[in-house]
Amino acid sequence: MINKHEEDTDDRNMLVSEIESLKRKVCHLTLQRDLLEGVAEPIKKETGVSLKNLTNKGKAILIDALKKEYEIKVLFVELKILPSSYFYKGKFNLIFN
């Protein structure tokens, strides 16, 4: 037989777990919003902004803009860009700029 205290503890643990899950979702959605806003900024006149149509150069520019707010690894995953592609872009700009 489960007593009242054990039930309260189980309910509390479940709520804490749900809160943590929601916090992760909020962080993910905030990142998605920031990425889309970053894509939309230079092409405001265009319609149908999509991260899928972004070139590696565009993704690298977006990563540069957001890397102070988000872990760079998370940005690589969300933008589906290999770290080598991002760092190649940086070396290329140093050589030719």
Describe the structure.
With 97 residues, this protein is mostly helical. The chain has four helices and no strands. The mean pLDDT is 79. The chain has one domain (4-96).
Kindly summarize this structure in a few lines.
With 97 residues, the protein is mainly alpha-helical. Helices cover 72% and strands 0% of the residues. The mean pLDDT is 79.
List keywords for this structure.
4 helices; 72% helix; 97 residues; mainly alpha
Chart the SSEs and their pairings:
Layout: H1 4-40, H2 56-66, H3 72-79, H4 83-96
Helix pairs in contact: 1-2, 2-4
The general outline is: elongated
What order do the SSEs take from the amino end to the carboxyl end, as H and E?
A: HHHH
Radius of gyration using CA atoms only: 20 Å
Mean pLDDT, nearest integer?
Answer: 79
What is the first-to-last residue Cα distance? Answer: 73 Å
Helix content: over 70%
Approximately how much beta-strand content do the residues carry? under 5%
| Low-confidence parts | none
Helical element count? 4
Number of strands: 0
Reported for the largest beta sheet, the result is: none
User: What is the count of structural domains?
Assistant: 1
Supply the helix-strand structural class.
mainly alpha
